[in-house]
Amino acid sequence: MTEKEREQVALFRHGLIAPLLNGQVDPKDYLDGLAGKVHSIPHYGERKIAAKTVKEWQLNYRRNGFEALKPKRRGDRGSSRRLSPEDQDHILEERKKVLHMPVSVFYEQLIKSGEIKETQISYSTINRLLKKHNLAGRQIIAIPERKRFAHEKVNVLWQADLSHGPYVPIGGKKKKTFLIAYIDDCSRLVPYAQFFPSEKFDGLRVTTKEALLRRGKPTIIYADNGKIYRSETLQYACAQLGITLAHTAPYDPQSKGKIERFFKTVQTRFYPLLQADPTDSLEELNERFWHWLEEDYHRRVHASLEGRTPLEVYHEQLDQLTFLEDSSILDTIFLKREHRKVKADGTITLNKQLYEVPSRFIGTSIDVRLDENGVYIFEEDRKVAEAKLVSMKDNAHAKRVRSPFIKANHQEEEGIDHV
């Protein structure tokens, strides 16, 4: 089993014990509910899990943290063929276009169009996927039961999402922006939000780190199934921090009503200010947005808060908030993780680029973590070195250290009498 697979298994186990760790459920009822259920476990496939096993995972996590949830190291027996998250999303989107089509016919069309190969993905795999997301059989048009809710305490649940923002000048051209934000379910306070020039994970990393530093740690983060919210990096970070990462059902944005309502408020109260006085840069857009957020939104009476403002409700419970004991952990847990084997010339390939690493790693498999600022090498969850982009030009002129073996051999040859 590879290190990546070990981490995926650990993330699955953490997701299963998270409700127990955070007191969301009655332990007995929760464990009884798990009995008999079949779970799709990374690497292992579909299996049932005993309550005793879940209790052991919970105990191991409390004693030794996330690392204790990883399977013990052993020889890799090979990985089974599965649909990647991206493939699943694509198939679900295609299915939504032809809901009238029987699943068997839909499966045949996927093979015919080259979307999947019959030898790799079976009909049962596709059928299970569609059933899981309520896109198979007669119940595909069923409307989920929905009830309004609000948590009584601050930082129990943060809703997360992104919204399309205005166009602003970036690099001499008008470019679209994206607003990534969190909102506290109880107080309606926004822990942090910011406009970015793309929908990539880098923006979510910044937003999450700032939110945790400024407003404390939530018990649950509730997001949709977008790519950045389903990333292993976010899953791992939440597991390390003891935060439950929960996702909405596919195609169900209404379940995140509070964050959707906040975005509507931004559209009706903040964007008109930009129309009257356009911004000249992304930096100016964010500065004006943050000022509006603190001076207008947070201090305005909210209809569902019984005549109080989001800031007042938040401040009423300051003594109940949990802040990070060591904020420096945020510098490493949000790094993207990769595993690479170092070549004989001391290099690795990442994102189609060549990086140099210290020579002591040659021939070994290393834990590589990266962000927009650099590429780092970790051992036992600790940064030990940094990888550098290979410069062919600089290497061509670099001074080589003469091998001591060559020198020794040369001296021996000088001492030989040639006849």
TrEMBL record:
Residues 140-318 form the Integrase catalytic domain. Residues 68-89 are annotated as: Disordered. InterPro entries: Homeodomain-like_sf (IPR009057), Integrase_cat-core (IPR001584), RNaseH-like_sf (IPR012337), RNaseH_sf (IPR036397), Transposase-like_Mu_C (IPR015378). Residues 76-89 have a biased composition (Basic and acidic residues). GO terms for biological process: DNA integration. GO terms for molecular function: nucleic acid binding. This is Transposase. It comes from Sporosarcina luteola.
